[in-house]
Amino acid sequence: MIIPKWLPAPGFLIYFSGILEIVLGVLLLIKKTRKLAALLIILMLTAFLPAHIYLIPGGAVHVG
Fold first, then answer.
1. Is this structure's pTM higher than 0.90?
2. What's the gap between Cα 51 and its chain centre?
3. Residue 18 contacts by C-beta under 8 Å, 6 or more apart in sequence?
4. How far is Cα 35 from Cα 43, in angstroms, rounded to an integer?
5. Would you call 58 exposed, middle or buried from its count of C-beta atoms within 10 A (0-12, 13-18, 19+)?
6. Cα gap 5→48, rounded to integer Å
7. Is 16 in contact with 7 (CB distance < 8 Å)?
8. Which CA distances in Å does 8 have to 4, 34, 50?
């Protein structure tokens, strides 16, 4: 429900973004990759912002 209808393959995008979040979280734990991971997380959250704005007119999201 959080994926806008105009984006293709919503199931893939949900799993991909989840895996990406986990990988970036792990990279935050490694001192050598910490700055890059932080930058990529900021970019990812910025990219997710339109999806959250997309939900505003519909009100609360019901899961299940």
1. no
2. 9
3. none
4. 12
5. exposed
6. 14
7. no
8. 9, 31, 15
Quick count: other Cβ atoms within 10 Å of Cβ 24? 18
Which helix (H) or strand (E) is 39 found in, with range?
helix 34-55
Neighbour-count burial of 19, counting CB atoms closer than 10 A to its CB (0-12 exposed, 13-18 middle, 19+ buried): exposed
pLDDT at 41: 95
- Angle made by CA atoms 59, 25, 44, in degrees to the nearest 5: 50
| Tens digit of each residue's pLDDT, the chain (64 residues) | 677 677 788 889 889 989 999 999 999 999 999 999 999 999 999 988 877 777 777 655 555 5
